[in-house]
Amino acid sequence: MIQDIEPHKLNNSFAHEEAEREHVVFTFKDGKILLYRDSEDNLSLPTLGKLPGPFEENRDKALYAFSVDQDPMFLILDKDMEPAGDEFTYRDLRELYNVQPKWAALAGVTASHLNHWYSEHLFCGCCGSPAKLGKWERAMVCPQCKNVQYPRISPVIMAAITDGDRLLVTRYAGRPYKGLALIAGFVEIGESLEGALRREVMEEVGLEVKNLRYFGSQPWGFSDSIISGFFVQLSGSDQVRLDRDELSEAVWLKRDEIPEQNNHISITAAMIEAFRTGKINY
């Protein structure tokens, strides 16, 4: 999955670091990430020294984000930074799946999560005053009313519904991703993970489930969330009642009917593949 970057390690502890020319820098525009393109058309994460524009000006804007191993990485909250010539290009975050080194996808998506949060908290949500960066922790602090805002992480549940050797797989409605998916949704106020799972399953496909078994979790900066995945067993009728606002399709597939999942990034693919290969017999 996206977080599996061993032997490397992402360290997201707050720190005071100053950006240098060799340090990786993230900047975004309209949800896309700025990437560097070399003479052989290979894409990589840009370093501060390669960014378009004056070096000192870029360094002054660089905000420490996190480190990978011992290498600090920075974020520039500058939506007006334009690529210079053919060396730079804004690309969809999912293109990071094919960028080396292997930690690039996790780093880029996590930086996007931070970028989204910082951009939404430039002003205090209580009194409207301009907010300032926290000095001792990753936070946005209001100098007027002292309100403190921390990075938002929204909990999401994912349900792989099984019935013997069958798995219910879905496809999203109205989204660019057209591959196989599982039931998923955000946890609402006052809900447990288990309660949210049962509600989402009922709302999207009209099924009742039982015997929830935890599979694993995944940070998913695309939606500022963390996903908790569960395998669950069908309880009662297998007749699907599809919510067509959310899903275009939901079908039961036997193990040998499920195509191999070549995406090693998402928990969705990991769960489907675990069932297809028999690693999960539930």
TrEMBL record:
<comment type="similarity">
    <text>Belongs to the Nudix hydrolase family. NudC subfamily.</text>
</comment>
<dbReference type="Pfam" id="PF09297">
    <property type="entry name" value="Zn_ribbon_NUD"/>
</dbReference>
<feature type="domain" description="Nudix hydrolase">
    <location>
        <begin position="151"/>
        <end position="275"/>
    </location>
</feature>
<dbReference type="InterPro" id="IPR049734">
    <property type="entry name" value="NudC-like_C"/>
</dbReference>
<dbReference type="GO" id="GO:0016787">
    <property type="term" value="F:hydrolase activity"/>
</dbReference>
<dbReference type="InterPro" id="IPR000086">
    <property type="entry name" value="NUDIX_hydrolase_dom"/>
</dbReference>
<dbReference type="InterPro" id="IPR015376">
    <property type="entry name" value="Znr_NADH_PPase"/>
</dbReference>
<keyword id="KW-0479">Metal-binding</keyword>
<dbReference type="InterPro" id="IPR015797">
    <property type="entry name" value="NUDIX_hydrolase-like_dom_sf"/>
</dbReference>
<keyword id="KW-0460">Magnesium</keyword>
<keyword id="KW-0378">Hydrolase</keyword>
<keyword id="KW-0520">NAD</keyword>
<dbReference type="InterPro" id="IPR050241">
    <property type="entry name" value="NAD-cap_RNA_hydrolase_NudC"/>
</dbReference>
<protein>
    <recommendedName>
        <fullName>NAD(+) diphosphatase</fullName>
        <ecNumber>3.6.1.22</ecNumber>
    </recommendedName>
</protein>
<dbReference type="Pfam" id="PF00293">
    <property type="entry name" value="NUDIX"/>
</dbReference>
<dbReference type="InterPro" id="IPR020084">
    <property type="entry name" value="NUDIX_hydrolase_CS"/>
</dbReference>
